[in-house]
Amino acid sequence: MPTRSESSPFLLLSIRAEREAAVDEHRSVLRLGGLADEELRAVNLTHRPLGPIDLDDWSGIILGGGPYNVSDPAESKQATQRRVEAELSELIGRIVAVDFPFLGCCYGVGTLGSAIGATIDRTHGEPVGPLSVTLTAPGRRDPLFAELPRTFDAYGGHKEAATRLPARAVHLASSAACPVQAFRVGTNVYATQFHPELDAESLCTRIDVYRDFGYFDPAEATSLQAAARATDARHPPTVLRRFVERYRRRP
């Protein structure tokens, strides 16, 4: 953990058991977040338990995406997924209680949404690839999203989503197929359904890794990668970068 003379790093929590995807996620968060190596530490929850987390040790916590779905039937979940969900539930409960800086990417909608009583199900899944995100009026005023275009291109791909948010959540963005693309709880706790930690090459890596996970027809992998490279998704990483800039703590 950092000493008093060191800056407090960000903590990246990963649920990607697939090494190539996990390594690429770490690299893309560093690159697109504008972080130095020493400013980001990672725990892969599919490889080891989370262990004790003292929030005072961290500038903020970032949760990456992955193949888990909190809305999966309990009997279909393997032991590792059940452990991960229990650990994240406890941690996110504490995060919400003290309004600690948190950014959940994709899987964050399910985990944070579950913690605050949102309805999470498979009603509004979206195929892997580009999508158009539109900010709500509160989204256009939010410090992570303000000054982005009202509508911008992003990358997504998910089986579950939020169909209803509780009154305590601030709805920040939507898309044509998925009404909840981003929301905030309190002042500092965020979740996005789209991926602010992805650029085209990282999405192409994930398409290669997850081609047999049921997100898309494997025969479409090459065309999906071409569509990703043809999309100008420059704006979503601004959300990640602003999160880092807003919450980075220096000695």
Please describe what this structure looks like:
With 251 residues, the protein is an alpha/beta fold. The protein has a single domain (10-247), classed as Class I glutamine amidotransferase (GATase) domain (Rossmann fold, 3-Layer(aba) Sandwich), CATH 3.40.50.880. Helices cover 32% and strands 23% of the residues. The chain contains seven helices and eleven strands. It has helices at residues 19-33, 79-98, 107-116, 137-141, 200-209, 221-229, 236-247; strands at residues 10-14, 40-44, 60-63, 102-105, 119-121, 126-135, 151-158, 161-164, 169-174, 182-185, 189-192. Strands 2-1-3-4-11-10-9-6-7 form a nine-stranded mixed sheet, with helices on both faces. It has a two-stranded antiparallel sheet with strand order 5-8. It starts with 9 loop residues before the first strand and ends with a helix. Residues 1-5 have low confidence and may be disordered. Residues 55-199 form the Glutamine amidotransferase domain. One of its GO terms (molecular function) is transferase activity. Keywords: Glutamine amidotransferase, Transferase. This is Glutamine amidotransferase.
Which keywords apply here?
251 residues, 7 helices, 32% helix, Rossmann fold, 23% strand, nine-stranded mixed beta sheet, two-stranded antiparallel ribbon, alpha/beta
State the CATH topology: Rossmann fold
Give the end-to-end Cα distance, rounded to a whole number of Å. 14 Å
Number of domains: 1
Give the biggest beta sheet.
9 strands, mixed
Give me the secondary-structure category. alpha/beta
Radius of gyration: 17 Å
CATH class: Alpha Beta
Spatial strand arrangement across the major sheet: 2-1-3-4-11-10-9-6-7
At CATH level 2, the architecture is: 3-Layer(aba) Sandwich
Instruction: Report the principal-axis shape.
Output: globular
Number of helices: 7
Low-confidence stretches: 1-5
Mean pLDDT: 95
Strands, total number: 11
What is the element string, with H for helices and E for strands?
EHEEHEHEEHEEEEEHHH
Percent helix range? 25-40%
* Beta-strand fraction estimate: 15-25%
Tell me which oligomeric state these chains represent: single chain
State the CATH superfamily name.
Class I glutamine amidotransferase (GATase) domain
